[in-house]
Amino acid sequence: MTQEIIEKAKLQLRDNDQVMAKLIDQFEFSLNINENHFEALVKIIIDQQLNLKVANLIYYKLKDLLKDKLDYNSLLAINEASLRNVGLSYFKISYLKDLSLKYKNGELDFNSFYRLDDQSVIKELTKIKGLGVWSAQIFLIFSLGRANVLPVVDAGIKRAIRINYGFDDIPSEQAIEKLALKYNWSPYQTIASIYLWKSLKNSP
């Protein structure tokens, strides 16, 4: 995602959405891309259904266990008991092993992702055990840097929209999609999502 795209996104979001305009004024835009796609998917699997503090603790314990050699060979070689000791559930261990095996067998070709549209990448990633649409969308944003991704199932996005747009309750996925359409977020839904996540820093 280039700086030019980010600036165009800010202009469009400002022009169409007063709430988004306030968030743009309030927060600095930042997006840290992890270009190590395998490692990014490992982190996404660990993050599932955990708060960020706990997920980060497990992730860094895993890296320490593998002596910072976080790749498919290391994950396939390490035994289940050792992975359990760093805090990984049996389910997540099976997901990481499946990811590693598919990558080793050539079933997962990260280089091909650059030629695929967002939906095609999601289709490929969701073939991996434990990776659903949310996981694939987070990968699109934080590893491929795609500009038009709106993870409507994300709890943080739902909470941020409830707070910033005055919803009485947590909005449904359909309500979020309608909101994005109403305020013309596309083709910059990723940038809108980043500002929504950032807005939670000042929320109780």
Q: Would you give an account of this structure?
A:
The chain is built from 13 helices and no strands. With 204 residues, it is mostly helical. The model has no long low-confidence stretch (mean pLDDT 93).
Major β-sheet profile: none
What is the count of structural domains? 2
Radius of gyration: 18 Å
Q: CATH superfamily of the largest domain, called what?
A: Hypothetical protein, domain 2
Task: Determine and state the CATH class of the largest domain.
Answer: Mainly Alpha
Q: Please indicate the percent range of residues in DSSP E strands (runs of 2 or more).
A: under 5%
Low-confidence region ranges: none
The average pLDDT is 93
The ordered string of helix (H) and strand (E) elements is HHHHHHHHHHHHH
Number of strands: 0
Distance between the termini: 31 Å
